[in-house]
Specification:
Length: 269
């Protein structure tokens, strides 16, 4: 930043300069990613204050679609586990049955599509399922198990360290009661406790694994979604999670909280 090519140099020199600048940017990007694995006290200070260019307009993450082989069973699971209501029923353009589930107007909606072919969750993809805020994790996990789902990780309190965005002091720890369950189609659902949650539960985030966190973060920023939380999971896990959502939203380690709508969680391992 701050470097400018001189306009009156020869094309060959200009090309060499541009090539060198490109290499320098790549080196800086690698150095930035490497610094994420250092202890927070050793991380360069420029990671603690990053700015975003203004965007013309913001978008909202409204819904996620799952293809399932048993539409009725999966609908019942989300109704029993989170209290989601059926907002629409009908058919897709290709004739497949579909069902739209949701709760509060600001929360993420789930569209279920009947499939006679390949359906359900795939471990091979980057999509890691959904997050839901609930007032009682233990009760939600029990409901998941009794309504055709499975408990992958039992309810427990997980300690998260400080985030860089918003910046928190080094000694800050955030305790989150959470559990990981799966619906009848195998799609993971991360449950985390948010006592301000209205009703039985709300879907609040789509969870994605990414191979390059910075370009992914910038892609969402270019569509109007702000970085609400930027957190390293060391030493518990060698990863970072970037939570994006509408500007002004509030996010905890597992997703948006306090009725702050819906967003995405980008996990870089």
């Amino acid at each position: 930043k701050g470097l400018q090519l001189i306009g009156d140099v020869s094309p060959r020199i200009r090309q060499a300069m541009e090539t060198r600048l490109t290499q320098l940017v790549k080196v800086l990007a690698v150095a930035s990613a490497t610094a994420l694995e250092l202890p927070r006290a050793l991380a360069p200070t420029h990671h603690r204050a990053r700015t975003r260019a203004p965007v013309a307009s913001a978008v909202s993450l409204l819904r996620v679609a799952h293809s399932v082989s048993d539409l009725g069973a999966v609908c019942a699971f989300y109704s029993e586990t989170l209290g989601l209501a059926t907002m629409e029923e009908g058919s897709c353009a290709d004739g497949r049955a579909r069902c739209l589930l949701g709760s509060a107007a600001t929360a993420l909606q789930l569209e279920l599509r009947q499939s006679d072919g390949p359906a359900g969750f795939s471990e091979d993809g980057a999509y890691r399922g959904l997050s839901a805020r609930v007032p009682d994790v233990a009760a939600a996990a029990e409901a998941a198990a009794s309504s055709g789902g499975s408990v992958l990780i039992a309810p427990a309190v997980v300690k998260y360290g400080p985030s860089l965005v918003p910046e928190e002091e080094d000694q800050v720890l955030t305790n989150v009661t959470q559990a990981l369950v799966a619906d009848p189609a195998g799609f993971p659902l991360l449950l985390f406790q948010d006592e301000s949650c209205a009703g039985q539960g709300e879907l609040c985030a789509a969870r994605l694994d990414v191979t390059a966190w910075k370009p992914s973060e910038d892609w969402w920023a270019g569509r109007g979604l702000a970085t609400l939380r930027w957190q390293s999971n060391l030493p518990r896990e060698t990863s970072i999670v970037v939570t994006v959502g509408q500007p002004g939203g509030v996010a905890g380690p597992c997703g948006l909280i306090g009725g702050g709508g819906a967003g995405g969680q980008l996990r870089y391992v």
